[in-house]
Amino acid sequence: xxxxxxxLCLSFVLPLPLxxxxxxxxxxxxxxxxxxxxxxxxxxxxxxxxxxxPRNNMVLVKLRKSEEGETSRxxxxxxxxxxxxxxxxAAAGPGLTHPESGQLLPTGVGAGDHVLCEExxxxxxxxxxxxxxxxxxPDSRVVATLEGGVMSAATxxxxxxxxxxxxxxxxEETASGIALAGLGDSGELPSQGEVVAVGPGQLNARGxxxxxxxxxxxxxxxxxxxxxxxxxxxxxxxxxxxxxxxLAKW
Length: 250
Prior knowledge:
InterPro entries: Chaperonin_GroES, Chaperonin_GroES_sf, GroES-like_sf
Largest sheet: 8 strands, antiparallel
Organism: Emiliania huxleyi
CATH class: Mainly Beta
Pfam family, one: Cpn10
Structural class: mainly beta
CATH architecture: Roll
Keywords: Chaperone, Signal
Helix content: 10-25%
Number of domains: 1
CATH topology: 10 Kd Chaperonin, Protein Cpn10, Chain O
GO molecular function: ATP binding; metal ion binding; protein folding chaperone; protein-folding chaperone binding; unfolded protein binding
CATH superfamily: GroES chaperonin
């Protein structure tokens, strides 16, 4: 009789699930499972079931708090027509579809990229995401990416048809013998300088970059109020301008 009772008892003992058995033995859950369980996606105090995903050419940027004149990782934000902020891309949309060709025009940045972007009043959306301040902007407001997250003229990669122009300190003479006027008594920055870096060009209907009309090493003249001022603390002042804002080159 005893063997029969023992057999019946064993037949009703169900095995523990694998994860439960591991916990029973004191094993640690897989890191991926722990991270997934610990992540809470919160947008403006609302809980989300999944990460925030920008649509079209929108870019979600976690901005660093920077005030005018504040040194921010080697960059001095100067007063200009466009306020430039630095931050890191949290997420980016796939891009826009051209209305005529149907070609996807991909967004030029991705998650993890360190960027400088233009913050313009009444454009974009300021949001609180994952407990930190972010801004949702169209990719056209991304001025440049910073290679390795380092703030310098050498790591500055302009977006689209933008140029990084180094302004002369004082009266300088180029290799061709042309004198460039530096900062005058009025305190106004000169409207010419040497092109240090150029963007890949504007995307056309085929999703290809149009060739840039200027190249690094060339000198350009642009409108006095064109562009945004930058200072990388290397002793020079810079401006970021669009190629279309250049009036002449040599």
